[in-house]
Please model this.
Amino acid sequence: MIIARDIAIEAGIRRLISHANFTVNAGDKIGLVGRNGAGKTTLLRTLGGELEPAEGTIVRSNVVGYLSQEAALLELADNGVTALERILKARSIGELERRMEDTRLLMESAAGDERDRLIKRFSRLEDEFTARGGYVAKAEAKRFAHSLGIGNDELDQLVVTMSGGQRRRVELARILFAETDILLLDEPTNHLDIDAKAWLMSYLDAYSGGLLVISHDLPLLDQSITSVLAVENGELEPFRGTYSHYLTEREKRRAQRLRERRHQDQKIAKLEEGIRRFKGSTEKMAKRARSWETRVAKLKDQRVEIAKRGKEVTLRFPAGPPLGRTPAKATGLAKAFDHNVVFVDVDVDLDRGERLIIMGLNGAGKTTLLRILAGVDEADLGEVDVDYRSSLGYYAQEHEDIKRGINVLDHMKEVSSVPELTLRSILGHFLLADKIEQDAGTLSGGEKTKLALARLVVGQHNLLLLDEPTNNLDPQAKRALLQALEQFTGTLVLVSHDAEFVEQLGPDRVILMPEGDTSFFDETMLELVSLA
Model:
């Protein structure tokens, strides 16, 4: 159980949520909804114990599992841990298995009394491992991993060598394996293919503990939740039912508030008209008018507040300098991490003004190829040639270019020398105007996405490389991004698992990874987008 009493949540100097009261009990399945930047992620981090509330108290009982929106594992102390070991650590089994393996390796080279000592040590460790249900739990951990799209090869891979999507699936498997009583999940379907999403929804349907989830995946919100907590204008408002019911009920409540407000305003207007009419007349009527003034003041204090509808993101990528016929070209690219060969002999040949999508299953090297094209990473073999007329803008799915300790406005100044007033105006179009002085590292995932896109806008690039740009965006911001890319006249290279977004964008060509085969795009490939 989690009990929040009169809590306030802040990010830097900004108050995000005030006077919040709610509980999460076993069996509750709650969707936490609101626009990007409303405070959802900060609230979840606070409930998970990563942050302290500015005011109020939070009481937690039993085991709480928290999935962060970020894929980076800043807390990973052992860079030698494999994915399977990371998952097993959720039940303190992974460390035992590591000690057993270390002892076994020492036994191979030991002799005499030392070998006997190591044998006894291994036997004690194995007895403890078995007593904790280690062998059964190991098989269970693998089932969780496989259900989330983590293959056997990935389970043996070092976590530090994994892509952001792989790491995030490992973290989700670890948290689900941990036998929690409460789950706090921030965008759990990011980086999941269609089968893994279906499994997760089924798992959450059957989950007997309490669930509080943030997601822009509407099917998840409709299928897996029974109530909604909406963050609007710094307050939490509860709704019963699914996300679809919430949308309908929200409009009904707003219409009811508008009717109540109109009735109150009409009553106030009628009294004020009487005050103006009688205040300067007889003493009796003037006295009545003064009593009406007291009544008007009281009515004004009791007026129903009507929240303003949120502003919308506006986004447009300016036309950069004219492109050459071949903005960028790569030949014979190959990349491996230790013994894990990601791809070999991949060619990329971009045309002026085309939209190219890189597709493939998780771990096929899509992000790695994009990072090599962007010049962030180097290929082990092959060459990349970017035309001198190309102005390249790269969007990284893990927001590596958004740095903690630097405020939002300074991030914009890093990539553009235009006047500060112009930068402030652009940030306003991305609904970041009130966060200009805020440490960019404290932004939510959706806000970091908007800041990264704003940096691309001021860069005036004619070649865009975008890696999962729709992750963490609310529906309105995603529509704005789609419209901007549809109007973009430069060349676009995209990695995305969002089949609806890709279908509406309509790519020209596709590169299938890890083979690197290039072909024209057609709608039959959309299923593979969902599997990516």
